[in-house]
Amino acid sequence: MAVAEDIKDRVAVEDARIPTVICDDVHIVYTVNGGGGGRGSATAALSRIVKRDKTGGAGRGMRRVHAVKGVSFTAYRGEAIGLIGSNGSGKSTLLRAIAGLLPPESGRVYTDGQPSLLGVNAALMNDLTGERNVILGGLAMGMSREEVKERYEEIVDFSGINDKGDFISLPMRTYSSGMAARLRFSIAAAKDHDVLMIDEALATGDRQFQIRSEERIRELRKHAGTVFLVSHSIGSIRDTCDRVLWLERGELLMDGPTDEVVKAYQKESGR
Ligand SMILES: Nc1ncnc2c1ncn2[C@@H]1O[C@H](COP(=O)(O)OP(=O)(O)OP(=O)(O)O)[C@@H](O)[C@H]1O
Predict the structure, then answer these.
(1) ipTM of the complex in this document
(2) Which SUPFAM superfamilies would you find in this protein's record (predicted)?
(3) Longest dimension (CA), the chain
(4) Domain CATH number, residue 264
(5) CA distances (Å), 232 to each of 58, 87, 202, 260, 268, in order?
(6) Which residue of 68, 69, 89 sits with most ligand 1 atoms within 8 Å of its CB, as the best mutation to test the pocket?
(7) Is residue 195 included in any domain, yes or no?
(8) Domain enclosing residue 95, as ranges
(9) How far is the CA of 90 from the centre of ligand 1 (A)?
């Protein structure tokens, strides 16, 4: 009887874990025009395109960068997952593949819902004011005009852009990189996402903003989403994530609870 109860409990726990992202042996390869002896003219570029081999693959002068190598994992609803690893280890590439922006060379990415990638380079329009960008950004994320209107003040307050004067009515190009990153984060974080991926966004804001963002990430998790965070700040990863994936040279070295993975990473990298 007790055994049956135990099994029932375990099944219930398993049921509660709803997968949101599954990566199955994912390989990502960039094809780069790696040479041509420095011939950079438009005619040279055109002739390279014309001469490209019929397979459409890496022809003469093309180089392949194998950025992600056979990565497999399953992410569940409610998890906040940190991605760590040295420069060029494939963290951003993996996120871009999960967002559907890069096709895997082989393997598969399955996602439940539309993942949103919030990168430091996410596109806002530099010539438009912060205000217009909040509105357009909200609409682009699928919010209605009403929702954007309702959330507008909250987004601007969260970003802190107006703390030192009326900056929200100035074009984005007048913002510092930290201010722009804060606004991007604030727009993206205004919505509850199925899967939200944040690439280094926290590293750009000041400490106060980082604390606010970390709080917001915790809230987003409560609303049943899955959050991925790429960061070189081990502090941010510790404060926000309960699970960490450690990538090195495109391979998944370790996947486990934050404490264990961070400890191993710090031991290896001497940080
Ligand atoms: N657009 C691109 N074209 C060609 N190669 C690329 C491109 N973007 C990244 N790479 C290569 O892919 C590899 C992984 O890069 P990626 O940006 O994913 O690493 P990362 O772990 O996010 O690095 P960082 O911590 O420095 O941001 C690197 O070798 C990089 O040179």
Answers:
(1) 0.97
(2) P-loop containing nucleoside triphosphate hydrolases
(3) 79
(4) 3.40.50.300
(5) 32, 9, 10, 17, 15
(6) 89
(7) yes
(8) 15-31+66-269
(9) 6
Strand-pair partners of 129: 171
pLDDT of residue 81: 96
Q: Is residue 42 part of a domain?
A: no
In this structure, what token pair is assigned to residue 134?
A: 């909040």
Q: What's the residue count for the chain? A: 271
Output the six-digit token pair for 106. Answer: 């082989």
Read off the pLDDT of residues 183-233 as tens digits, 9 standing for 90 and up.
888 888 888 888 988 887 666 678 888 888 888 888 887 776 899 999 888
In a domain, 214, yes or no: yes
Alpha carbon of 121 to ligand 1 centroid (Å): 14
Decide: pTM greater than 0.80: no
| Distance of CA 91 from the midpoint of ligand 1 (Å) | 8
In a domain, 172, yes or no: yes
The verdict on the CB of residue 91 being under 6 Å from ligand 1 is: yes
